[in-house]
Amino acid sequence: xxxxxxxxxxxxxxxxxxxxxxxxxxxxxxxxxxxxxxxxxxxxxxxxxxxxxxxxxxxxxxxxxxxxxxxxxxxxxxxxxxxxxxxxxxxxxxxxxxxxxxxxxxxxxxxxxxxxxxxxxxxxxxxxxxxxxxxxxxxxxxxxxxxxxxxxxxxxxxxxxxxxxxxxxxxxxxxxxxxxxxxxxxxxxxxxxxxxxxxxxxxxx
Length: 205
Fold this sequence. Notes:
Strand order of the largest sheet: 3-2-1-4-5-9-8
Oligomer: single chain
Number of strands: 9
Strand content: 25-35%
Number of domains: 1
CATH class: Alpha Beta
Structural class: alpha/beta
CATH architecture: 3-Layer(aba) Sandwich
Distance between the termini: 39 Å
Order of helices and strands: HHEHEHEEHEEEHEE
CATH superfamily: Vaccinia Virus protein VP39
């Protein structure tokens, strides 16, 4: 099966197990998001336009952002988007592949993407970053979790369904971001069981 179809079908299958309608999920899944957003939100103004890329069912990230800002959520799992429209009515949602969707240049003041780009085949990561760079206004902010170490593979049983991950090492991702015109303000390793990811905040030049 195509890697993207594994991800799409996987999140259609595990949507409720990953995040229930109250925002709860497997142990450890709910701890970080509000703290991460607390480092972004003070940098934004009430009229800010925010893109949540790989928004899932909208909880908790899109909902937290939509309490303050004008938010668009994008995910390519139809079930996740169906739930997001019900659970976060204040935001706008689009069911689309983040590697194929496009917005006018400078459409957003900030882009947030938690645990989503890591599901895209790494050969397309630079395309995703280039899109984000176009969609951000000059000085716009990009807050995301990306890979810390290079890996590509399939977990046959992720909460009850196969799931695909792919990302290069952090050095490669940072080089792509710099080449595309991002200034990386900081990175932070987020440990998870025997591995981990990188949280980063970058600014478009």
